[in-house]
Amino acid sequence: MTTSKTPSALFSPYQLGPYELRNRLVMSPLTRNRATGNVPNELMAEYYAQRTSAGLIITEGTSPSPNGLGYPRIPGIFSPAQVEGWKLVTRAVHSKGAKIFVQLMHTGRIGHALNLPTGARMLAPSAVIAAGEMYTDTEGMKPHPVPQAMTDADLRATLQEFVQAAKNAVAAGFDGIELHAANGYLLEQFLRPNSNTRTDRYGGSIENRARFVVEVAAATAEAIGKDKVGIRLSPFGVFNDMPLYDAMEADYAYVAKQLDKIGLVYVHVVDHSSQGAPIVPDSMKQTLRKVFKRTLILSGGYDRQLAESDLAAGNGDLVAVGRGFLANPDLPTRWQTNAKLNEPDYSTFYTPGPKGYSDYPVLGAN
C-alpha cells in the first residue's frame, strides 16, 4: 500500500522513446473479434477510447497480410479500408491524450482456410501441423490444417508485408507498432525448434531460427524509426503448441541481444503462469532485463500490489494488464482509489457486438 509520502511509480509518467506516457500501466493486446470483414469500425473506436486512462494502449493482434488472418473477425492493416478504419481508433484515442501502438500479428500455422480471404494461404516456417482446433464462423471448430512451408519468395514477400504494415500504421495515426513474436504465431514459429524444422539459413541453430524475427524487426525499425517499434516475446510459453525445450533460456537471451542491437523501443515479455502455463523463471526475466537495455514491459496476472512491487524492485519499467482493462475501462482510477473491480464476462470475449465489449461500467456512471 502506498502513501502520500511515497508516491507510486505505477501512476507516475514514463518516457517511452519520444513519448511521455501518463502512467506506467499498459493495456495488453487483447483479441476481441469485433472487426467484421477484418476492418476496424466505430465500435472498436469506442472500446479503445474508453480505455485511454492507460499510459499506453497496445491493440489487439492485427494482421499485416491476408495470409495472417487465421481467426475470424480479426482486423488487418494491409488494405486502404483497414487503414481508414484504424484512423477512427487513433483519432478517438489521441483526442483523450493517450498513446497507442498496433500489434502486428501474423497467425502463420494457427488458423483455418475458412477464416482466410479468397486467395490467401496458411504459411509457416515448415509444413508442421499445430495441435488443436480453430473456430470458424461457418463450420464451428475445425482441426488446424497442415500449413505450407514458406519459400524464399514467401519470406521476402512476408517481410515486405510487415514493412508496409508498419508504414500503414504510421499513416493510420498510430504512435508505433508491436511485433507479435509470442504465443505461437508466425514470428515465434520461426524461433521454436518444434515448428521450425528448416534446413536452410532460417532453421537449425538459434542464429538461423531467429533470423527472420531479427530481419523483420530491423526492417520495420528502418522503415518507421526504432523508437516506434516494440516486440512481444513469450519465453517458456506453451500456447498454440509451443512445448518447452532445454535451450530456451539461452535462445531467448540471444534473441534479446539482437533486438537490443537494433535499438527497439521495448520488449514486452509474456508470463501466463497465472493462467496455468509454465512459470517463466526469474533468471529468464533477469536475463532479458540485463541484455535488453531499453524499456521492458512485464505482463501476466498483475494486480496493483504485484505491479508496484515489481516496478519498485526494478524488474521492469511498465506493467501490462489484459483482463483487468477489458472489464474496467477506468482501471488506473480503480486501482488508485482501491475501488471494486468489474468481473470480466468470459462468454463475450470473442463474440460480435457491444455486449461484454463497450458496455462495462465506469465509476460514477450510475
Q: Can you describe this structure?
A:
The chain is of the alpha/beta class. It has eleven helices and 14 strands. An eight-stranded parallel barrel has the order 3-4-5-10-11-12-13-14, surrounded by five helices. Strands 1-2 form a two-stranded antiparallel sheet. Strands 6-9 form a two-stranded parallel ribbon. Helix 3 runs parallel beside helix 6, helix 6 runs parallel beside helix 7 and helix 7 runs parallel beside helix 8. The longest helix is centred in the middle third of the chain and has 20 residues. It is globular, with a radius of gyration of 19 Å. The two termini are 28 Å apart. The N terminus is likely disordered.
Q: What is the gist of this entry?
A:
Helices cover 31% and strands 16% of the residues. The chain is of the alpha/beta class and 366 residues long.
Task: Write down how many β-strands occur, each being a DSSP E stretch of 2 or more residues.
Answer: 14
Structural class by secondary-structure content: alpha/beta
Span from first to last CA? 28 Å
| Content of β-strand | 15-25%
Mind summarizing the main beta sheet? 8 strands, parallel, barrel
Strand order of the largest sheet: 3-4-5-10-11-12-13-14
Topology readout:
Blueprint: E1 14-16, E2 19-21, E3 25-27, H1 42-49, E4 56-62, H2 80-94, E5 99-104, E6 123-124, E7 133-136, E8 140-143, E9 148-149, H3 152-171, E10 176-181, H4 186-191, H5 206-209, H6 211-224, E11 229-233, H7 248-262, E12 266-270, H8 282-291, E13 295-299, H9 304-312, E14 318-321, H10 323-327, H11 331-337
Helix pairs in contact: 1-2, 3-6, 6-7, 7-8
